[in-house]
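I'd like us to work through together how a protein chain folds, taking it slowly. To get us started, please write out a protein record for me. Go ahead whenever you are ready, and we will take it from there:
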Amino acid sequence: MLKDNRSFLVPEDVSGDSYFGVVALGSKEFLLRVVNVRPQPSTDVMSLARAGLETDAELSELLRPYLAVVTRRLQKSLSIDSFLKELHDLLEGIVRGPSYAFVEPPKLSYYEALLQDVATIGWDRVLEVNTDDHGHWNGLHVQLVDSHGRKHAVSFRMDASYPSSPPTCGVDVPEPMPPLQWSPLKPPSLQHAIDQVQAHLETFQDFWDVLDDIDKKCCVLEPDRPTRGCKRRRLALRPSVSIQFDVPDPVLPRALVDVVWFGNDAAVTPLRETLYANLSKWKPADKLRRNLERVLGVRFPSPRTAAKNEFALECGICYAHRLDDRIPDRVCDSANCARSFHGSCLLEWLQAIPTSRKSFGTVFGSCPYCREPISAKGV
């Protein structure tokens, strides 16, 4: 049913071979006529197979780029009402702006290929079917399981030329999926695309083994819910001290990493010195967690023995633990204070203090609690 009940098409006479009416859009009303409506043989149902469209000058100008498509849609419509609804939706899109495009439905061969593909891979692996703004099927999400039993949601997006052209692919991995290889020498299919995704997933099995070991056996402060594509971890060492690192090469996830320290100097300096002294003990064959514990001379707190909220320090300015999905990342260097702050909160605080000074993008001032020197980097 049309949202605007001012739109209508009614028979011009008892023969019913032409309809006249209005399509309304906001304050606008456009005149139109559908002609050459014929009854189907041996039925009372009217056929639009040879129908034509006549419009007023303003509507004709609006429909000029789409007239051939609109005429085909009219001739394939099941009823006058369904065509009027489709025409109304098209006009709404045109008025919204040039980003809207009237798209004719894909050919039957497109849907036949998609259905054959899904039958081959199995409907049980399909998580979701996607449609475009016009309701046309243009993609799907498929669940894949890698060789280590991990589940991955993979999205495939097809255009109307599929399977002649390859789909685009999206999957949560630490390195981008290369473009799918689509050779005319090999019959293209969704299974062919899935095989390439599976091969790409196998590249990162050791990366996920290493980070799964960390996620299970350490108190991970950030990210709160790591994705399969995330290479960063921030790990708690004690309530006021944590470290952060990124795995630089997901293909070589056991290599030495650069560590960023969070905590005041009194607590961090001994740990940093121990790490530098023990770098020669790093063993590329061991997992990242074991190497870090060896060179730091510590054992990471385990989720089994320490609650994560023991390390959930609140910001000394906004009094929240998490702000814009970030936890406090700046600590006062005074051992007697050691208050934690979000970098953005501390920066805003220091910028509001007249005695603060700025140099090379960093603002220098005093801790809001102990008045000891503290700094924050600008954006």
In short: DSSP finds nine helices and 19 strands in the chain. The two ends are 52 Å apart (CA to CA). The longest helix spans residues 80-96. The CA atoms of residues 201 and 334 lie 46 Å apart.
